[in-house]
Amino acid sequence: MANTTVETAIPRVETDLRELAQDMVRRAMAGGATAAEAVVREGDEFSTAVRLGQVETLKESGSRAIGIRVFFGKRAASTYSSDFSPEGLDRMLKSALELSKITSEDPFGGIPEADQLGSLSGELDLYHEDVYSLPGAERIDYARRAEQAALDFDPRIKNSEGGSFDAATGHKVLANSHGFVGEYRRSYCSVAAIPIAQDEQGGMQRDYWFSVARNLGRLEPAEQVGRIAAERTIRRLGARKAKTAQVPIIFDPMVAGSILEHIFEGVNGDSVYRGASFLAGKLGHKIAGENVTVIDDGTIPGGFGTSPFDGEGIPTRRTLVIENGVLKSYLLNTYTARKLGLQSTANASRGLAGTPGIGPGNYFLQAGRKTPKEVIGEIKEGLYVTEFLGHGANLVTGDYSRGASGLWISGGELTYPVEEITVAGNLKDMFFNISEIANDLEFRGSVASPTLRIDGLTVGGA
Amino acid sequence: MVDECMVKSASQGISAGCGIRVVSGERTGYAYTDDLSAERILHAARTAALIASGPAKTPTVGFQQKAARSLYPVTLPSVDAEITAKVELVMRADSAARSYDARIKEVRASYADELRHILIVTSDGTFAEDSQPLARMNVSCIAKAEPLSGRGSSGGGGRVALDFFFGEKTPEYFAKEAARQSILQLDAREAPAGEMEVVLGPGWPGVLLHEAVGHGLEADFNRKKTSAFAGLVGRRVASEKCTVVDNGTMPWRRGSLNVDDEGQPTQETVLIENGILKGYLSDKLSSKLMGIADTGNGRRESYEHIPMPRMTNTYMLAGEDNPEDIIRSVKHGVYAVNFGGGQVDITNGKFVFSASEAYMIEDGRITAPIRGATLIGNGPDVLTRVSMVGNDLKLDEGVGTCGKDGQAVPVGVGIPTIKVDRLTVGGTAKKDPGGFMQ
Questions:
Q1: Do the beta carbons of residue B329 and residue B301 sit within 8 Å?
Q2: What is the dihedral of CA A172, A176, A182, A184, to 10 degrees?
Q3: Which of A288, B6, B342, B362 is deepest in the core (most CB within 10 A)?
């Protein structure tokens, strides 16, 4: 592989994306639309995977696409294209205008009011060209070092799904017929390792670890990522089934985030106005214990969920979702805000086509004071969950039932690994039964939670 | 999409591109472009070729296009059909669901279709083309009877034309099914917890096979020996009543393909025959490196992705048991007939699938509906506990999408009624699972 070099720049005929987006909006309006919004996305990605010391894949590419949403009065339609030729763009515009004739009049439809639009000023620390600065061989080396550290950690690590290094940059432009035009760039890089350990009986276990950052400098050392991945894998060896029981359950930070995601789904304006969430109509009500405070903040510099404006061009903000157990705000885009008679919380997430959805900014549960060790130390018999399988949560009924694996807690200590078990309860009770929140809040993505203890759940096993 | 009785959104789009893969031993270089100019494609080719340590050793042979099958010969692809007819479908679904029961409070119905053109040329001489239609309807309902609520969803389709939804499977059919499930949930009681007998109904519960054995038999995991099934060919992995196949050649079905995404014709592959593991699902790279046949399972989400072994339509063949006898044989257990998704850890073999419609079986009779619960098991041995296989094989309605390494592809599943002697049910009821417990 000595001769492998990877070019970092792919030549592309430069198009002024800002001008293009505005032009599409102008043309839609000239075609009779009463409001229009265009989004252009352009991105480059690089990824490499090394397995058992050998390069397995190298992937490098760039892509771009444009989407447009048009309104004829209260009727809406959207189209997109990856074809930027004049014919491709014509076709996209024409189909949008035609499609909007078949949709229904919706009094709540439309782009945001002009006075809501804008973009955060100041440096948000989202884009660093250095994610692409490494020569190809060094990128591969990142992946190789992560995997090697895992393989070297313990002789029982005999196989691997590999180590990887990924980098990506994205550029987004949004323009609408109120004259708004905004753009931002974001970068990302990550290193990961997925070792496989085998015990004497031949039983295999796999786990992983990763580090992700907006610039190379903040990436954890590859060796550290590999070592943690190996530790997480080794501790699963010899896992057995637990007995069916009701015991306290600790969610490690990697799985605790899923509880926050369930809350997100429950306060998401789309679920709320449809009554598809048991949290609908609960503004101002207590929906969780005193100790629970949940915040969504799209403005944190360098954050994985940060952007200067949301998918509809509204400046991002900090929203207190739950304060000391009381539901203070839903998370809304323009449409769902209008449906509920509220203001958008700047959580619109805009794909290329379709109506904007709702997505989190940096969304987290406020940390408590105890260390995870202290929280575990208080439990006589319990389960420490490190992984969930499946998606068994129903926000309509609150029913919660998921496959799990982790470690059994006995006498305040993590003891043997357990697997092939379920964890079940009802989310309505679970939010109240978060009896401990540890102090280990750390963002490894846009959603983050400290270690949690939840009581009253049923472990299903042997 | 229709929501609150209004056609709230309509969207459409086009994406096109070219992906170039260069393979050198076990190494793969990949690049793609959505700009189809010769210059950009050449650049992608050069980028992908950086993986290779030198020029190709085997010369490219003359391209050959094999006689193509035609598993989905639609005359008018649905993407070209009148859009008003599609609007009619969702409006009909909406009104059918609402009129099912006064407790239905919310209905969302959607229709989506696509037409994918692929062209594959490879240095081994393969030249293949295909046009792949895909259409799908979905209906979801929320029922309320304060303080209770329930949700249900249904849908279906395949590589079919629009007339499928006006004849074979109407919007009313899907709407009633979604409505029925949401109403049923209003009366559901707590699900039991722990190991017990489980009877799976026919059709979509075949997702068990997809998770428990299908993924574990994909050749890439077995080549790397990272699957719990590695090295088990010729060994017993199921009871002798179980024969499981993957079949990409079923006309009109969602998981079917005339050729896979490497240009190889799809086929019917026996994975498990009378309980014995027969083989893996392979793509070109795995078949070459493992010295096994290419089963035509090399699939990818789009030109942006590297192909890998994937399932098509995976199902268990019908057995001889009468479904009623299967239910009657259970003293205390769960009868699960509808599922949400599932997931598997292919390395330790543990898999889950989540029941969205299930009932208790008590003394051989189906009794009360129970709340949604996850079922968990171990892939390499769950099928060894299958003691009865029904004579009622059914394929799913055509809604399955499978995700692997971030790539989504349409798939099908199917199964007859089966009885699993022991499977862990993830409910909340501790003792006396039949009774009420709070």
A1: no
A2: -10
A3: B342
Taking the C-alpha atoms of residue B112 and residue B133, their distance in angstroms, rounded to an integer, is 11
Q: For chain B (length 438 residues), average pLDDT per consecutive 10?
A: 74 90 92 91 91 75 80 91 92 97 96 95 93 96 93 96 94 98 95 96 96 96 94 96 98 97 97 97 96 97 96 98 98 95 93 95 96 94 97 96 95 98 90 38
Closest by Cβ to B374, choosing from A103, A387, A392: A392
Please state the rounded mean pLDDT for residues A177-184.
97
**Plot region of A352 (φ>0 → left; ψ -120 to 50 → alpha; else → beta):** alpha
Looking at the complex, does the CB of residue A236 fall below 8 Å from at least one CB of chain B? yes
Strands A181-198, B27-33: pairing is: unpaired
pTM assigned to the model: 0.93
Interior angle at CA B142, CA B139 and CA B147, nearest 5? 170
Q: What is the CATH number of domain B68-186?
A: 3.30.2290.10
Q: Model ipTM?
A: 0.90
In a shared domain, residues A248 and A370: yes
Identity of the residue in A59, A81, A276 whose CB atom sits nearest the CB atom of B13: A81
Give which of B129, B69, B81, B113 is closest to B256, Cα–Cα: B69
A264 and A367 both lie in a single domain: yes
Q: Which residues does chain A have within 8 Å of residue B34's beta carbon, measured at their own beta carbons?
A: 63-65, 82-83
- C-alpha–C-alpha distance, residues A106 and B152, integer Å: 25
Residue A105 has pLDDT above 80, yes or no: yes
pLDDT of residue A11: 43
Would A5 be classed as within a structural domain?
Answer: no
* A140 in the same domain as A195: yes
Give me the number of domains chain A comprises.
Answer: 2
B27 and A419 within 8 Å at the Cβ level: the answer is no
Nearest-by-Cβ selection for A394 from B151, B342, B424: B151
Closest Cα partner for B297 from B337, B251, B247? B247
Res A14: pLDDT: 55
Report whether A386 contacts A403 (CB < 8 A). Answer: no
Domain identity same for A37 and A66: yes
DSSP letter at A390? S
Residue type (1 letter), A135 = P
Please tell me the distance from the alpha carbon of residue A360 to that of residue A337, in angstroms, as a whole number: 15
Tokens of A71: 């309104």
- Structural domain including A96 reads 17-233
